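Problem 3 from the worked examples.
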Amino acid sequence: MDINKALERNQSPSPSTTSPSTPSPTIALNDTEGFILIYSVNYVFILLNLISVVFILVRIFLRWRSNKRKFSMALRVPLYLGLMDVLLLTIEFINIIYPTVYLKIIPQPYCSLIAGLNIGIIYFTRFMVAGIAIITYLRVCRKVYYNYGTYDWKIWLIAGIASTLLTASGYKSYGPTEYWCAARISSTYVPIFSLILSISVIGTCTFCYYNTIMEIRGVKKNTSNFSNTTNNYCKNILSRTEQIEARVTRKVAGYILVFILQWIPSFPYEISIIMDKKEIWTFILVVASINLGGIGNAIFYVLNEGWTSEGRDSTLGTESSDIPKSSNNRNKNHNLSKASEKSSQNTSEITIVNVDVTTTTQITTINNDKNV
């Protein structure tokens, strides 16, 4: 009997034996290098992010209610990002509150689930922003228009399917790491793909919005030159539309800029995981980076909309239905066509394109036909 017990003790694994990517259960988490510093920074940025997200969502809800439950893309973009930040904050808080209380990582299989949800939400957010950037580019620069449904649910569906498939494909690599639940360092699949995805999304957003802004500037310049040959009625329409267009462009581009700046600091963290070189500053950088989105969006929201929630969403004026279409206005447009004939014999088209992915305002083509 004593011999059998000795053999069983020799054959059983040591309680301190773990994989290279899993912290030893015999060592308290607070003894891990940089634990206090990393978690302190994380809690500070989570608190700031939470305050910012709550502020944005409350303000947008009040604006949505005052505008008869509708608003333009200039308000929907921060709403979408705010909802994603709420989910990310919830998972992130669960991920660090357990180690804070018990000084050990969340046990399996819950750790893999938390890590998978965290990565899935990040994927989903990136696909959402990339989708908004692409369809805006197509509408403004390529004049390609699609109906994406109420509150752009089709974009949500595509982003949801893509992020779910990608998250599920790397599920086996999720688990406990040095400080929390994430992709284990022993597997390079997730960090490599995450780095490629980050570069692709940021590159796509930068390309799309740079070309969009250049296109809008070109249209505004053309309309400014053309308005010099028109009557005051047309000038007023062009001036109003240009102002709305510039306002919407600035708002949407600002949120995309925040997204780009938010995820650039995550590159060193992902590279350090791929190279298996753990540096404390990369962990601090990534926890700050993840929470910068809500803070930056709140700053841009205040700059765009102000501190109060009263008033109508001015970007709703980009609807083509807002342009008067009475018989008197048609007569003015007819007279405008005659006036434009004197200045040019070529066909002129002025199009004011709204970066709102669901609304495009187009000023009626003015055809300089000699028979008019």
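Problem 4, a separate protein:
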Amino acid sequence: MCFERRPGTPDDVRRFRKSYFAEPGARIAHPGLINDLKQIDPTTKFGVVTTTSEHVAEVLLNGPATEYQRLTLAKREADYASHKREPLGKSYSRGHVLPARMQQPEFVFGMGGTFCESAKELLYPSTRDGLLNSEENQALYKRSHGSVAPGEQKNRGYRWEAASIDPAKHRFGVKPVGIGAEGGEVAVILNPEMDESIAAPDVASRQLEDRRSLYDHLGKPRHLGSAATDTLPSNHVFGVTTQDSDSAWQCIQGEYSADEQQPDADLGRAVNHGWRNATCDKRAFGVPTIRSDIPAPARRSVADGQNYGDDPNAQTLLYPEEFASSGVSNAEFAQPREQQYVRALFEKIGHPLPDDDFELVWKQATQSVRYTPSGQASIADFRDALNDFLEAQERGPAALQQWQSRVETMKS
């Protein structure tokens, strides 16, 4: 039997089927974009091409490290107007010329106040002559601000004499009917005993008399009993005398004596009965961080992270010694050295000395007891003595002769 081959899917329909992307490595795209993608170079990149990113060292660098970098940065910053107007470390200069007294270091603005003022002085300021305004100043405040004293009638400057009016006695308005010349009708209504036309009762109630005696009268203090206030002087003031108040600085600092500042006697100990867990033995629980109780192995493993007491401390890690990167500690410079060893070492670093000068420098180094006992010298001792020799040599022949005389007089 012979079967005809099945016809393929047309190209305009095939891109809509899943079998179109069945080949290995085929790029999957939307059917509507397949024909457009055929016209685009497959190596084309979309977007904006960016430069390489900054490295970590450039990001963490917070300032110029060398003098050349500082000069380069200063040259770049000199173009900015803000740098010219307000340079680093100086305030913005607006060209004002201050008087000579304001340019003194001890000059300050404002008014000098007292060290501490009490609340009473702030609420009720003292009426000293220097704090009160003069009559001329008060008149100016009345005219400019309309400021008058409490209870004072505002004077608008009317000329009453032109109208033949006495402001102390004249009353404006129409007089109502039924009010006498003396007035006081409201007072008569509230206090009938003031009306002479009404006969006063022979007997008054005790409640009314007590009310009249204890009621607050206008403009008079309250009667609180039979206190002997008549015998008190006119300038008598009731209450407790105000004590010297402490300032805010004294309140924060306190006034504790040296004994009061000492720690409590029971500090670090339990004071409640039944909570004490004292022991006579000086024992410590747990495993110590530094295993000084066991000997360190002769050859430590790379995976051994135990500290046997010979590891550097945190201070050494945070602040390493000057020549730690070369494997040389500061203690090496303080070790006693032989004379020939020290001379050869300093000759290699560029300080060759004649025999006479070297003997004098070595003599001064052996007399120093800063690093080694007397009679011995270390690299640090010889360095200090050499610095004295070089300094005297730079100052001139007189200073050099003085240094030689001083060293020769030293005891060997």
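Solution to problem 4. The radius of gyration is 52 Å. The CA atoms of residues 294 and 308 lie 8 Å apart.
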